[in-house]
Amino acid sequence: DLGINPISDYSEFRLTSNFSVSGNSSNDFTSNLSTVLTIGSAVTQSSGVYTLPSTGYWQITGHFRTFTSSGAVKEIGIQLLKSTDSGSSYSKILETLDSGDQQYAYSSGMITSVVDVTDVSTFRFKFRAIHSGDCSYVGASTNQTYFTFMKLSNT
Asked: pTM here?
């Protein structure tokens, strides 16, 4: 035995069309998300809120690609948020930021975290777009902006 555990549960979601945002604010990714791949038990998604199928250690990753639409944007990124009270309140786990230094500039980034999910009835996750100006998060038929959930082991 090499001590290697096969992947038991994995789900991948993709933004399928551009998500345009404006101003200095934050917006949750709530629509135009489709399931790309599922191995084992599926993570479910409803209006951008993700529920995991089992307890354990999960690696949650978010990738984004953006382009600026009306000039430079100092901060462009994503946040991963977690709720332990069925979505009544969320706390930020982590974020990543990049910048678009001119109009029509592309930016990209990734965040990843390992989370100990102890109660599937109350734990929820979502991704949030953060930006200081007008830009679009790229959605397409290939992975440009996408989110993955992989179970690493039981708790």
From this structure: 0.92
Query: What is the CA angle 30-32-37, rounded to 5?
Result: 105
How many angstroms separate the CA atoms of 11 and 73, rounded? 31
Condensed to tens digits (0 to 9), the pLDDT of residues 13-41 reads 999 999 999 888 899 999 999 999 999 99
Retrieve residue 33's tokens: 């998300």
Can you tell me the distance from the alpha carbon of 132 to that of 145, in angstroms, rounded to the nearest whole number?
18
Question: Does residue 71 sit in helix, strand or coil?
Answer: coil
The burial class, CB within 10 Å (0-12 / 13-18 / 19+), for 101 is exposed
Instruction: Please list, in sequence order, all residues whose beta carbon lies within 8 angstroms of the beta carbon of residue 112, skipping any fewer than 6 positions away.
Output: 59, 60, 61, 62
C-alpha span between 155 and 148 (Å, rounded): 19
Element (H, E) at 92: strand 91-100
- How many Cα atoms sit within 13 Å of 109 on the Cβ side? 20
